[in-house]
Amino acid sequence: MDEIKLYNSTAERETYENMAALYAIIMSLECLERAFARDSATASEYTAECNKLLLQYKTVSQIVVGQPDLLQFVQQYRLSCPAAIRRLEVGIPSTIEHGNAGAISGGNAKHVAKTVQDFITTMDALSMNMTSVDKLHPLLSDLLQSVNAASFLPTDYKWKASFRDWLIRLNKMKASDELDEEQARQLLFEVEQAYADFKNILDSNE
Question: What are 165-182's pLDDT values in tens digits?
Answer without folding.
Answer: 999 899 888 878 999 999
